[in-house]
Write the C-alpha cells for this entry.
Amino acid sequence: MKMERRNTDDLRSELMDAPDLTTFLAANEDNFSSASAVARLNEMLEKKGLSKAALAKQSGMSEIYLHQIFAGRRNPSRSRMLCLCFGLSASLKETQELLRLCGLAELYPKVRRNAIIIYGLLHGMDLFAVNDRLFSEDEETLF
C-alpha cells in the first residue's frame, strides 16, 4: 500500500528532529518532488494549445532560445521564466510552481517589482503591458 504524501511543514518538523539524515531521506523518498520544469512547461504548452512559435512570440524570446529551454539545454533566468509564464497566460499558482521547479525565488508581494508582476498575472495582463508598467514605475523590466 502506497503511503500518503506528507506536507512541507510535517517534513520540515521531522527533518529538524531527525537523528540522522540517511534515515530521514530513506523514510521519505516518496515525499520528495521529482517534477521537472521542462515537463511542467510541456504540460502547460499542450494544455494551452499553443505552438512553440506562438509561445516564443508571446514571451518576447527567440524560437531558438525557447527550443533550448524545452530541450533542457538552457536554464532560463528568473525574468525569462516569468516571460514564459506570461506567454503561457499562467496563473499565479502555476508561475510560483515553475519558479520553484527551476530553483528560482517565488514572487513576493512585499517587493515592489514583484507586486507589479503579480498584479499582471492576476489581472490577465500580457507580458508587454507588464513590461511597460514596470518601466513606467522605474522597475527593472522582464526583458
Remarks:
- The mean pLDDT is 92.
- Residues 21 and 81 are 33 Å apart (CA to CA).
- DSSP finds nine helices and no strands in the chain.
